[in-house]
Each structure stands twice: as structure tokens, then as C-alpha cells.
Amino acid sequence: MIKIEEIRKRQKLNIIDRIIIKNKKKFNNKTGMCKVISNYISCDLIEDSVNNKIINTKDLGFNYEHEFVLVKLDLENIVIIDLTFEQFVKNDLNFYEELPFEKLIKTERGKVIAYSILKKGYSILHVDELKNFVEIFSIKKLALNIDKC
To answer: What is the dihedral of CA 117, 123, 126, 132, to 10 degrees?
Structure first.
């Protein structure tokens, strides 16, 4: 028997998939568009009653800005949505070394997360993984409050 939590989780993922498809069609060139696209995604999620939070790397202590969206999937998992993630990748699918994503792909799990974001526009991360993922942008440790998502 399927639990109610699993049904809610599947419903959120279906909404996320639909919104990603809609926004991929809307934006052909995504380079430098992270704020605009994250805002569209966030608004679309709100219209579908899905709480979310836009994260800006500048707020995390980095000297550049990049934005992505977080959605709390359940008590243990977060969805990171980033349709502009591809701008950090060279044509041969190697990550630009001067950016923090080089840290992400040094582990097998990090590679899975990165390629999931590239392929689907999002990845599901355990709460502990999210903190590690976000800290690759940051020069300081974070007290990330995921309950606001």
C-alpha cells in the first residue's frame, strides 16, 4: 500500500517536471539568466502551491551571484532546481575548474547530482547532501534553514 507521503512526493515531482519543461521551452539561452529563470520557476511553483526558496550564492559569502531554487520534498530530501547549471560546463561536459563545481564532481555522488541537474534540471538531495552542495559555493560554513522551503 502506498503511503500518503509517497503520493505527495510524487505529486511534487510531477509539478516540478512540468514546470521545468515549461521553462526550458521559454528560455533557449540560459547563460546569465539564473535570476530570471529562478524567479519564473519559483512563481510557477507557488501557483501550484509548492513552497520553495530561491538561493543566491552572494548571500552565501561568495563574490559572484548565481541563483537556484530549493523545494522541500519530504522530511529528509530537498530538490535543487537549476536550469542554468549548464553554463558551468564546457562543451565536452567538463566543469570549468575555476568555479566551485569542480569540488562537486570529485565524488561519485557529486557526479550523479551534477549530471542529474544537467539532464533533468533538478536533483534530489538528502538534507545533509544539500548542506555540502551549498557549501561548495561558500567561503564559510552555513546554518541553512531548510524548513523555510
So the answer is: 20
